[in-house]
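Bumping with the actual sequence this time:
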Amino acid sequence: MSEIFKEVDLKDLSDIHVLKSGSKIVELYGEIHNKEISRNNSYINMVPHINYQKPLVLLEHSDVLCNLEGLNPEKIEYMLTRGGSETIFLKLMEKNYKKMQCVDNRLRLGLLPRFQTYQFEHSLINSLQLNNITGNIEIALIIPYLVNSMAIISNKEMRDYFKKSVYEKFYAIYTEILGIQLNLIISLFKKTKDNPGFFDESILKGETNGGLFVLTMLDFITNIERFGSMVMDINTLAILSKSRSTKIIMYLGINHSNRISGILSNNPIIMSRLDSSIKTVYELSYQLLKGDISLEESLPLPTIASANQEMEKHVISKLN
């Protein structure tokens, strides 16, 4: 059970992982983001104990927005009733708690924010459902964002960022897959300039070129989101390894908490897939999983349409 919140009813918490290494205690609290919770909840009751014990608190909150600027009463009310990590963030900010750190560095590194990828996904799915792909300007305007994302992911800064991390070998896998997917997206789109009806035709049996174009864009967006989740994991683990605090609490989404707990405890389910190791292995002393998302399901595996992307490569060869 929790070493820090022994006197708190943690009924509103989804997943709990308690890990130990020597005198250091790390407690991870995984949540389903934006899940509705009551106004008087377990997270509210955790705050006095945090103030008293003074642990380092790591939060899944953007490190470029780690302040209360621009938050109106309506937004604050929404945050307090949707997801516990936001409640902890608000309450500790109000108390000017010094040992709190926002660990989500995706925006700082230039990756797309979730609200934007959600808008893109909504537009793409809507175009598929309405069969409104040919001549759809809204979809065409998404492409530059994907090109820019690929440039950021493949630049030297990002390559160096992944070096010597637990996800180092996944970096090469993702850049290769994303490169093929972006090549296919651009190649399909270019064909519409000389042939306006190209998206209504079919290179693959059973799928229009327009459908393939949109589905590949959706796969690409899913993959840059999963890539971004690894970026945040690396940052969180780096902060943890450098910290001298003996008590550390993390409030993260369930996928992050599952993976970080698995990495710290050297769980073979994740470490064998990553083909990696860590210097300091923690003992997993307590775990409670209510979120129905397993460690296997939390693995940041890329999405591809066919084995070894043979279909994508075949279509590209046809287009060129």
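The tokens above came from a reply further down the thread. The chain has a mean pLDDT of 94.
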